[in-house]
Specification:
Distance between the termini: 95 Å
Helix content: 55-70%
Order of helices and strands: HHHHEEHH
Radius of gyration: 40 Å
Structural class: mainly alpha
Shape: elongated
Low-confidence stretches: none
Number of strands: 2
């Protein structure tokens, strides 16, 4: 009995319906049904029949919900195991592809500058002195690229109209 009470207390902090919590719920509803039956026999009041029907409906719905949670948990475990099997299968396929042999093909560029030849500045000759100079960037050739210069252009266009 002491282990049941400790299990019941710890099941409060465990997500989902646990066995001890369902047993305690079922015992509580059975005791309530017995009390309602005794009160019905003693008083002959229809109210206890209605209360007993409500209690039975709630008791059934709680057990149904716990069963549905168990089914959902089993489906979730099954999906997890399938996903784990697929991942292992994909890993096995990848390890088969990596056989350690080299294949011939085009060489892969190893540097970023090889991937994008535009990013590498090409030196140009200065006309006057023949020195090499760095080409101007887009920002220096078109002016400041900030939005302020764009607004200045809009304002100039409006004043010329």
């Amino acid at each position: 009995m002491a282990t049941f009470l400790t299990d019941l207390f710890t099941s409060i902090f465990t997500p989902g319906p646990t066995h001890s919590l369902l047993v305690a719920t079922n015992v509580s509803f059975a005791a309530l049904q017995i009390v309602l039956l005794i009160l019905l026999i003693l008083t002959y009041s229809v109210h206890f029949i209605v209360l007993s029907a409500l209690c039975a409906g709630l008791w059934w719905s709680i057990n149904w919900f716990a069963a549905e949670l168990e089914v959902a948990k089993l489906k979730d475990k099954e999906q997890d195991s399938k996903a784990h099997e697929r991942a292992q299968h994909q890993q096995h396929i990848r390890s088969d592809d990596d056989s350690g042999t080299e294949t011939e093909g085009p060489e892969k560029p190893t540097r970023t500058a090889d991937l994008n030849p535009v990013a590498r500045p090409t030196p140009t000759h200065d006309n006057a002195e023949g020195r090499l100079r760095k080409p101007r960037s887009l920002a220096s050739s078109t002016g400041d690229l900030s939005t302020d210069s764009e607004w200045d252009k809009v304002e100039e266009a409006e004043t010329h109209k």
